[in-house]
Write a structure and sequence with these properties.
two-stranded antiparallel ribbon; 5 helices; about 210 residues; alpha/beta; globular; Rossmann fold
Length: about 210
């Protein structure tokens, strides 16, 4: 069974959002093409869903500015601008994304005491979201992953998928993703490749 996991294609990470990724909206047509013509049996999406007092927000730490480094849950933490707050337009999926095709939405980042880049578990790896169990129950054998942002939530999700879904072929769709920093994107892709994630483009899937 072939599944597509769309990571955080939300207003907050697209131009005009509170934590915009450069050209983040450009992946929406690619994601829709994959949804419609990628031959997937299952379409899953993750959604950053933070409470207003989330500990990853610089606003919750006096003296900290967005993108400063700090600590959360005992591990280093980038202090982000307030973003994807539950129930706000910033947290909604991009309006052009074909959300009607979603079989399942996994919300994440709800615990204010720890961040959750991965769709599978919190950054301190103590609590899981239940997504791995869901995909296992559905019988996923191939899991294609794309979205925003390559150097954070997408790569964390891909590496956790490898770790938590043994035997599942995990592929990262590069042109259906965008990242925050060029060096970070390059490093994330290199790490994914070294760990066993297969790097593909949407044309490899749509023309298969």
């Amino acid at each position: 069974m072939k599944a597509l996991l769309l990571i955080d294609i939300q207003n907050g990470f697209c131009p005009g959002g509170n934590l915009a990724v450069g050209d983040g909206d450009k992946i929406v047509p690619v994601a829709n093409a994959l949804i419609d013509n990628g031959g997937y049996d299952l379409i899953v999406a993750s959604q950053d869903w933070h409470p207003a007092n989330h500990g990853s927000f610089a606003s919750q730490h006096p003296g900290k500015k967005p993108f400063d480094m700090g600590e959360l849950s005992g591990i280093p933490q980038v202090m982000w601008p307030d973003h994807c707050v539950q129930g706000t337009p910033d947290a909604e999926f991009h309006p052009d994304l074909n959300t009607d095709a979603f079989d399942y939405v996994q919300q994440k980042g709800e615990n204010p005491a720890v961040d959750s880049y991965s769709a599978f578990r919190d950054n301190d790896q103590t609590a899981t979201t239940g997504l791995a169990d869901y995909l296992e129950r559905q019988g996923a054998a191939i899991l294609d992953i794309c979205g925003l942002a390559t150097d954070y939530c997408v790569s964390f999700s891909a590496l956790d998928a490898l770790d938590m879904l043994p035997g599942v072929k995990v592929r990262f769709i590069e042109d259906a993703s965008r990242g925050i920093a060029a060096e970070g994107i390059k490093a994330a892709i290199a790490t994914m490749r070294a760990k066993g994630v297969i790097i593909v483009n949407s044309s490899d899937i749509l023309n298969a």
